[in-house]
Write a structure and sequence with these properties.
The complex is a heterotrimer. By secondary structure, chain A is an alpha/beta fold. Chain A contains 17 helices and 30 strands. Chain A has a single domain, classed as TIM Barrel. Helix content of chain A is 31%, strand content 23%. In chain A, strand 26 and strand 27 form a beta hairpin. Chain A is globular and about 65 Å long. The two termini of chain A are 44 Å apart. The mean pLDDT of chain A is 94. In chain B, strand 9 and strand 10 form a beta hairpin. Chain B folds into 2 domains: 150 residues, Alpha-Beta Plaits (2-Layer Sandwich), CATH 3.30.70.520; 141 residues, Alpha-Beta Plaits (2-Layer Sandwich). Helices cover 23% and strands 36% of the residues of chain B. Chain B has 7 helices and 18 strands. In chain B, helix 1 crosses helix 3 and helix 5 runs antiparallel to helix 6. The two termini of chain B are 18 Å apart. Helix content of chain C is 8%, strand content 31%. In chain C, the strands form 2 sheets. Chain C has a 13-stranded mixed beta sheet. Chain C is elongated. The N and C termini of chain C lie far apart (51 Å). The mean pLDDT of chain C is 96. Classes of the chains: A alpha/beta, B alpha+beta, C mainly beta. The interface between B and C is medium-sized, with 16 and 21 residues.
Chain lengths: 561, 301, 271
Amino acid sequence: MNTLRITGGTVYDPANGIDGIVRDVCIADGQIVADVEAGRTINASGLIVFPGGVDVHTHVAGGALNFARGLVPELHRAARTFQHGAMPPAGGRAGAAGSLRRAGLGGVTPTTFATGYLYAGMGWTTVNEAAVPILTAKHTHEELHDTPIVDKSCLLLMANNEIVLDLLEAGEVERAQQVVGWLMWAAKVYGIKAVNPGGVAAWKWGRNARALHEPVEGYRRLTPAQIIAGLAGIVDQLDLPHPLHLHCNNLGIPGNVATTVETMQVLEGRRAHLAHLQFHAYDGEGWDSMRSGAVAVAEAFKAHPQLTADAGAVLFGDAVTITADGPWQHLLYQLTGRKWGNLDVENETGCGIVPYVYKDRSVVNAVQWAVGLELLLLVDDPWRIFLTTDHPNGGCFWRYPEIVQLLMDVEARRAQIRKLPPAAQQRIMLGDLDREYTLSEIAIITSAGPARALGLPQKGHLGVGADADVTIYPAKPDRDGCLFSYPRYVIKGGAIVVEEGDVVAVSDGREFVVRPVYDDGIEDYIRPLFEQVYTMSFENYPVEIGRLRRPALMTLAAKRR
Amino acid sequence: MGTERRGVRIADTFAEAFDMRAARVVITAATPAWARTAALSMTGFATSVIGCKVEAGIETELSPADTPDGRPGISVLLFGVNTEQLGKQLVDRIGQSVLTCATTACFDGLPSAPGRVAVGGLLRHFGDRLQSSKFLEGRRYWRIPVMDGEFLVEETFGVQDAIGGGNLLILGRDAEVALAAAEAAVDAMRQVRGLILPFPGGIVRAGSKVGAERYQHMTASTNDPYCPTVRGRHDVTTALPEGVNAVLEIVVDGLDRAAIEQGLRVGIDAACRPGVVEITAGNYGGRLGRHQFRLHGLLDV
Amino acid sequence: MITLTLVEQPAVPLEAEVVRPDVVAGLSAEAIRALPVFLGRRQRRLDDFFRVEGDGGDEIEVRGDAGRVKWIGRGMTRGRIVVRGNAGMHLGAHMAGGAIEVLGDASDWVGAEMSGGLIRVQGSVGGQAGAAYRGSASGMRDGTILIGGSAGLEVGMRMKRGTIVVAGRVRDFAGLQMKGGTLVLGGGAELRTGAWMLRGTIISLHPIPLLPTFAYACRYVPTFVRLYARHLQALGFGLPADEADGAYRRYTGDSSVPGRGEILVWSPRGD
């Protein structure tokens, strides 16, 4: 039965219009129910009750991340460690076997088990791995298999897939849609990701794709704009629960405001989710004149209501940049002059890794820090823009509470702004923004909003029928001044997994997988092409569903035209 | 009440001296002669802060066992009005006279002084990007490429509080006697560590008084109470006792009271020779300088 | 003073970073006996392996062949450790002050990333003395390492400051990616000394093979070497610095980086 009653807490459930009401939350068999009789009770009076956090864009599992782990041994030496050991029995029941806590490392690139413990320890219960190449999807699923507690989904890289790009160039949109459907099911993923459309394909020639309407290197006519529009249309036709998840061209480049706004126009009213928008909101002509373009991006974003975004905010301190955007990563390497890793994924995509430290005395980094916050504050509708740091690119996910604090406390923001170099202070407008996020708005940007954007109706709220993922926070900031760093309780699928800051039980999260509609016959098109251009054998390409731990399958129906 | 030593009257008065800031520079070279050449060049035109901006002189010779690099050396003391001025003088003089002198190296002689000024830290630019540094036992040394190899100079030099303007006035029967007595005093005082005698040969023949009677623009003018040729004029109040026909002054700058006391002590003793009438000292009634050295107090030892 | 006599050889290397004055000072012998050491993944007591005598102070003496005892003196900031025997890996790693003396041999990573203090090994050591751990920007940041015997690969790799002296021979890549400090090679070296050197000084008392990216400059006795000679003489190591005896041939490099480091090779008079 496994019943639980959370009583007396101040509940924030914005999806159901509950804004700071003291009421009970009842749980049975892993779901929110209207009422329960027996079972454990948590006295949450004086505490805040939130739906479990949902991270809409993060990099926590797979080949790129593991390569990054290998690149930064010095950061592992300084990282928090998780010791292998037995946890006390759940609920304090003597005699019952406790869970086993597996060893792991925290830091900027946490190991798999540690990733689950760190997210859960913060009150986040659903995590979307944002970039998976089809070729190495097995690796991603292996690592997600070993990421405990949180529920997961992952997105498949598609915007530089040369089979798909060839079809788009030839105008064969229908066939491209079938191929995308087949590839999604082969990789066992939840949605489609586009990174620097055309740019990573161009990187295989040592080039990039900086202009949306110019042909991509190696192609005769195909432009990034056509890739973006083509894929957005395919995602809509496949009726995927989550729209095209797009990392725009010209990430990180001063003046990329123009590209971002142009991208929104290219999407022409189609749904899309713009990833880590902060990195795409810079004005200026070069590094010396780089300044915030958040106002222009926010204006354009507000004028395109079919779009959602996540912040991709920057925090000062250690980070590791890991993206499929190979050419950008090479540029960043040249700026830092230190370590760089670059991988090519044949026919599909690539990845670049550059460890990076954001410094508050760097004018550029200071502007980046401000832009993420400016976007979150300028966009009025919290249902459209979500809290992320593009972990680990902008900062570590386990520092999200610091961003929550900066959004809720204008004085804390201003105190940090005063510490920035004067040159930076003149290039940002963050000091002009008085807005302070309410708890309800925080619940939206950390949970309800991303859950809705991902198309997971059972997540992000505490209404009857929702998954029982509940986080209970103290009402006053903890020792580091942040409200959200140390939840009192975290409940995942109805089980108490975190109590008083410690992980006390481990469960296996589920992995959400979408089975799109496509014509099986497309395999006859794909197979000979695959055998011609890939070094791997075709039989080994698809991922068997049995490799996933607790897959939760969503089989889609054909879209009515 | 008077005090005498070997027939010479020691005046019951005090020398008035001033707060200054001092640095010690250790110059080494391939031979003692080359170290001395650099030291003499560096301490030239450094008799008084009034006109020279610094007072400098050779403190002592150093044997190879006593220098940082085990080569023959000389220690030089410099005294300035304030740290900033002293620092600039160090950079200018080491740059123009030690850096340029064959085989030399240059080290800080006050490594424990908490006040520091940049010397090598500024002179390193002469290396035009080709310089490098070494850091050993808490001290940084700059290596500047020069035509005979490298000029090694310490990055910072210590600056400490010091005392300047301690003095003796030797009143003699005639100029020849006064000079012999002053020379003997200088020889004795030069054996004392921690002090220098900044004037030429250690002796001042043109002692001065503050300001001037006639010319407003003069900050100092001839010390007419001690000038023999104007004794008797109605507009001069002489300080000369009977029988004195010449006066010479010895000015001493020292790192601390003890050094100046010892210097004055051995100086007075050496100057007590036949023909010297009196030994006295100059002061301003205690109105200008913070330090006073009573002559009788020195002899009580 | 505390005396730790090894009575039980660990079957696998023992992790004993508790053996340092910062930990034992002020503890009774009883408390010291109970200090944790790690044998593989199992936590054990110090007295499972050592007989403990005396009371905790600033001096520790280790007796026996502790060649499998790792991390002795790790991060110590004061006091003195004497090992009358061999010592295991990571001796004095991250040390900030105090002194360690080993009468026998030590292993790899002696004084890795140390920032102060003195380590003296009378015998030979392994590789990576004074070096950076993998991925770290810098190796030793200050301090002194003196090795009476020979050393292995990558001695002084990425060192930033401080002094390493090896009386015997070193293997390949001494001074690899060096950023500063002084490395004295008293007994020759194998290949690629100073590879990718950025700054700093390598002094070799014997001719050694040099990379083609090092350029000959001149023959002289740098004044700063005299300072080092005096400093090392007090520590019992003789560094030639007298023009009467010879001079150093100066090579600058590694131009492949490009670096502004130097290798000074002693050339006796008459050569």
